[in-house]
Amino acid sequence: YLGFGDSITIGAKSFTEQYLLSEMTYFILEDAGYQVRQVENLGSNVLRSALENGQVDVSWEYTGTAIATYLNMEPITDPEEAYETLQEVDRENGLHWMNISNVNNTYALIMNRAQAEELEIQSLSDLAQYVKDNPGEIRMGTDAAFANRADGLPGLQETYEFEFGNGNIEYMDAGLLYEALYNEELEVAMGYETDARIDDYDQIILEDDHTFFAPYNAAVQIRLDVFEDNPEIEQLLQPLADILDSERMRALNYQVDIERQSVAIVAYDFLIEEGLIE
Ligand code: PBE
Which atom of ligand 1 is found nearest the CA of 218? Predict the structure, then answer.
């Protein structure tokens, strides 16, 4: 019945949470009779272009990312308003936003707890002051995206009125930052708030006391033409969106990144346990 035979391509970026969201979406749509394909390891901008030009039909995207980097808009601090704005603005780009979840995977700056205590750094303001007072001492780890995005390092340094200095910035893949910090190759790193490794390595998130970081709720983007032909996809994915929040997402990320279980098994078991597939 439901859309049987219709083929849907799900796109994902290159980190665990994205693989999990894509995999869960795959199982739900497959269970409903769709033919589904997954395309993974796309950078944010590549994924967005693939959606716009039809190589990808569906993906989980973060509200703050779309607002800051695809639409070049000023950040919107209210999560619901951010979502509604996207629903309106992205129609013109042929995209429909649906299934907003309480997964808020915002960026964060993280430190090892022991060192943060030793240096008495709890907030981003404390960090800014420390860097100003001790030039050259703090090594900051980031991926290329965060280093360049307006909602990343440039905006953060502007808001908190300091600079790490080019010689003190170390570039690496986002997934490697937590361990590099743990191994004391860095003093500060970019992190994703729902990443389970922050707790596991006893790292802390520095308080964003000037509220620089916007909400990054995970929601589904679907091509408008695909949605109009298959409107039931919104209802099919709604129970998943309803059940997911940051804590649950972190627990799922934990099973993959810390317990080293496979994405497919973690996704499948979760959907079965929650009664979202049969
Ligand atoms: N984020 C934080 C980034 C990566 C993690 C969700 C805002 C993004 O994918 O846009």
Answer: 6
